[in-house]
Amino acid sequence: MKLYCYLAGPVEFSDKNEDWRENITTELGKIGIKSLNPIIKPDWLLPQGEKPPVLYGKEISKQLFVNNSYNHEDFEAMKYIREYCMQLINISDFIICRITKTPTSGTYEELGIIKNQNKPVFIWAPEKWLPGWVYAMFSDPFYFVSTKEHLFQKLDFIINNKDELRLEEKLKWLKLFLG
Prior knowledge:
Number of helices: 8
Strand order of the largest sheet: 2-1-3-4-5
Strand content: 5-15%
């Protein structure tokens, strides 16, 4: 059984929104986990013959706010992108969310949806900065990490020590254990 991990984090105003996702995707692939990257739109998720919008993330933000010109087509493209991200969240088994000081609104919406779906989520805060609201939603310290190495230590523990997890955590990771 293949596990899917959604990679949440700032896109719209981020200068380096792909770098960390590409690196994590490679590492997750080594342990048999498929990444769902909101930057890279897999063809298998698009209706046959449909193409994603030309602009994405920061490019749309620049287009929307240059000289206070708001283009209706660009706002419509953002609706498409939001729906695409919601699809990725819905098919994911767990989430890695990278929180930085970069302004973001989509990431926080995604975290709310993930919380309601009761999916496991790792909060990766490399800048050791975290909004109180995020901590209030996900207050189990087990899921907070500050480095990529720490994140993979936690994943390794879950995969190799499943009998030592609390019942609540076992239920969240049931798909992993059955795979």
